[in-house]
Design brief:
The protein is of the alpha/beta class. Helix content is 40%, strand content 11%. The protein contains 25 helices and 16 strands. The strands form 2 sheets. A 9-stranded mixed sheet has the order 1-2-9-3-8-7-4-6-5, with helices on both faces. Strand 14, helix 17 and strand 15 form a beta-alpha-beta unit. Helix 4 packs parallel to helix 5. The site of adenosine-5'-triphosphate has 21 residues, from helix 5. Adenosine-5'-triphosphate binds next to helix 5.
Length: 646
Amino acid sequence: MGKPKDKPAKQAKQYIEIKEEPIEEEGQRAVQPPQEAEHENKVKDEPEEENDDDGGSEAEDEEKSFDELGLDPRLIRALSKKDISISKPTPIQRVAIPLILEGKDVVARAKTGSGKTLAYLLPLLHKLFADSGLKQKNAPSAFILVPSGELCQQVYKEISSLIDLCKVPLKAVPLRSNMPISDMRAALSGPPDILISTPAGVAKCLSTGVLQSTLIADSLEILVLDEADLLLSFGFEEDLKALTALLPRRCQCLLMSATSSDDVDKLKKLILHNPYILTLPEVDGVKDEVIPKNVQQFWISTSDQDKLVHILALLKLELVQKKVLIFTNSIDMSFRLKLFLEKFGIKSAVLNAELPQNSRLHILEEFNAGLFDYLIAGDESEAKDKEVVDKGSNADTKRSKKYPKQKLDSEFGVVRGIDFKNVFTVINYDMPGSAVGYVHRIGRTGRAYNTGVSVSLVSPDEVEILEEVKSLLGNEEDENADVISPFPLLTKNAVESLRYRAEDTAKSVTRVAVREARAQDLRNEILNSEKLKSHFEANPRDLDLLKHDKSLSQQAPAPHLRKVPDYLIDATTKEASKMVKLARAAMGNNPSRRQGFKRKSKKGGGDPLKSFSAEGGAKGGRKGGMKRGGRSTDGNHKHNKKRKSL
Ligand SMILES: Nc1ncnc2c1ncn2[C@@H]1O[C@H](COP(=O)(O)OP(=O)(O)OP(=O)(O)O)[C@@H](O)[C@H]1O
């Protein structure tokens, strides 16, 4: 079994300033340990000019293989056999894996889609492989705690596929807090080696006696808090505190997160000992890069009422690339949007907290497999204020018996941490309620160094949150540098050309129609869920059986709405749409995109967002391209001089 070729601490020196390590005491972890010194480790994402002499060159480091990190060869072989072969570690993996193998507590903060899951899974499995069969266990050796049911399944799938490919006799189980106790008991019999759960799932096991606290103290070797920045915001604080009190001192703790926040600090203090803190450094004076640079972020200023016509123009005139993930702040809004788009022949599926879990997982699988292009996700937890959510809830209370009422799943969290495959565009139809929420939504594109685009529709009420996001992501040295630019491909003309049809159609999507569609979808999905349960246990690959993007309207779209007449589309928009299609075709043929983690190709090549000007005509390129200081759709927003690199 390989050992790390360089001592991790030495290797980490290239990135870090190591602070003094305090002496630990034997015993159990205190619930509130005193402030501990931390090793501040900066994970390099960009080459730097100078290097530490004894650390080797940055280029050499970038070339480091998994083998050199000291991982079990079975794991390395398994990575090469995955659907998308993984051969080289990402920056966070390069630094985190050796430290974890050394037994250090680690806090890893790295941008969305940067490979944090494997950064902890690989060394975790390596350690369990080594320990396997050495000691009789009465409880799992590792807990992986995640904030949502969806993430629980995703991590479980990842871990199971690695275990299968390595052919080792380890067992992982996923657990939900809403499982019947008998199922929990069955899942934990054995016991499994790895438990993946929300904190509430573990808390329920403890409170019902399915898991005994003394057994945890005897068996637990590794605790992982994945998406740590979300765990507390999902209301798991008490559950986590209860678990912390049981952790044996020897238990290694790992905390993975995309953003830094007070919640993460709180968790660090609660759970970790002398952790190595791995963070992405500031690059070019830009604050810690939380959103990958390869994601171009845009916004469109619009009134609330005009959001429908704007999104219609973006999708119908093909000004954004597929696949598209659209976020709303309420379930009703998701259905309103679905029905509205259907009238124009645009099919989409809706994902939300009231759907049965099987359906939600299946929708995700289908979307990831490319069976449909538009997914509308209701992210109620991110409603700007309760009012938006409550509108939906009021509608619920008025429902007649005709409409099934479903409890919202408190562990629904599909928008965060989920590894959506090949989502090119994320649209915030509604702005999220917090800047952290924005980061997690936008992080669903641009994963694994793929490119992506986000477009936020911002009403006057939402400008404040846009400003918050800008200040979170902004460039400290140049406050004027644009992090989120006005979207350049949508002209006022294009919007106006669709206005009449959009407004007319929007009137037909009444509250009653929305409520009926929502109820019908729920009925369909409850039926689906039952079928899915049995069928997909036997045929896990049979994705096509049930389609989730079926039309919910009674009537087929009218021909004049399905196809936008040519005369309505101005020449600039036609050109923009053509360029988006060409860019898409070019990317579709680019194998590096599918393999992920290959560096981007030449700057600007064929990217309409870099070379196109809605104002100055399509032929622009750099010269005639989007004019600096030009105007966006509504004409009020100046482009700043220094746009952040697109
Ligand atoms: N070394 C690698 N080479 C290529 N692809 C990788 C590598 N490591 C991970 N990936 C892929 O990158 C994608 C994103 O990884 P992952 O979900 O772990 O990101 P993350 O950092 O946890 O993001 P988030 O914070 O949004 O949860 C996944 O599809 C994963 O399979």
